[in-house]
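ugh ok fine here u go
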Amino acid sequence: MPANKQRPAREATTPAKLYALRSPTGLALIAATVLASMVGFLNAYMINVAVPAIADDLHATVSELQWVLTGYLVTVAALLLLAGALADQFGRRRILVVGLGIMLLASLCCAAAPTVGTLVAARLVQGVGGALVVPSSLALLNGTLRGSDRARGIGVWAGLATLGTTFGPYAGGWLVDHASWRYVFLLNLPLVIAAFLTLRAVPESGLSRRPSSLDVVGGTLAVGGLGGVIYALTAAPSSGWQSLSVASSGLIGVVCLAALVPVEKRRRAPMMRMGIFRSRQFDAINAATLLFYGALAAAGYLVVLQCELQLGYSATRAGAALIPESVVFLLVSPFVGGLVAKVGTRWPMAAGILVVAVGFAWLSTASPGDPYAQAILPGAILWGLGIGLTVAPLTAGVLAAVDDSDLGEASAINDAASRVGGVIMVAVVPLLLGAGTARSLGQPLSQNYQFAMLVMAGLSLLAAVITVVFVSHGRVPSETPLPAVTPRISGCALPHHSGTLDTPTTIDVMEPRSAS
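structure:
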């Protein structure tokens, strides 16, 4: 049977003029997407350096602090695929503007929050805006640049976004030390305003000609499932697993997630098609992504906390502690694409993950009184080297596992896997530390930081084993697009993307992320 009869037809989109990278429109597009992406990255993980200050100022419990961290991540992860459909349906530029507007208002509410409950609510709203920004920003870039400039354009975007987000935690730490944790949220404002101004010169992209067919049911199940599970994991250390609210929310979350797959199979226009999971390599790489990116997110959080609460670093120094990791990543990653083309995806990806695991093991030994050059620097260098080796083969492998017509959807699913892994593992941190009913993470860190970091090393090791067993070791076909440099924040590589997707209706975003 012909391929075009095996799958439902893709949505038609309004023909749009494509622009050269060096045209005024192309330059405005790069600027707007870089700024928008940086806002999303900063909201996700720059808050790590402010956690101790927030706890002191708002008298927040460990459970409440966890929701300050995970509230944003939960809504982004749960709404990501649904938001991508909105961008294709109503226009990527329009949805990007709406998302930035939501994030602007929510950031102001975060900065002015009088209580931790208000701060958590504002962070949840921030996540809604982030979910709209993530898929629409690079989809707009891909759908507006002419085909010959797309790879170069995404490479430029990646480099600029990386430079900004690498020093974001340092800037946030400086604000915490010299002003207030509230100013960390205001750091977004000039970026959002500048993005609004540059978007005025960017045309619309991705308007669908067909009636809306958004998968509201699937989106609701995803939100309910992730929200229920994350609430249970976050509340359990203080309330206990026997608590009615913990048990009921956990049960609701598990039921929603279990129902998601059969429901999606029966829907005419699901937010993710189950047929794409028929590839063993695709499934294996997504499983490895879930574990590995979850470990990256949690480790980044743990290292920052250890620096501030145990090693005596200021928020500024803690924010700068992992900058060498980003530098090494930037130096290594441009050369890995050629390596993947020669030796395939399996061994570079597995080797990179193992190097990160060794970096985690080294960082687990960081103790009060240890100099930075001994406690943090070697582990940070290994971390950056491992990420640099991993990102290109992981991205190339997940894209090589599916048909060309499924590249955008495969990217979005892999992005969602990285985000879900991150939010779950950050939520699990208090459990690993044995925080219980503690009012502060200081004492639990002193007792269980090493154990928690070794768990992250173990998860990375498991991801490497999955890679070796299930991922093809053959060379990537020459027509399979290799990724551009992936922007990231110290502590976690951001989700990745291919730089050469040509289908304008698909989401070609692997953002991330992230990060710490």
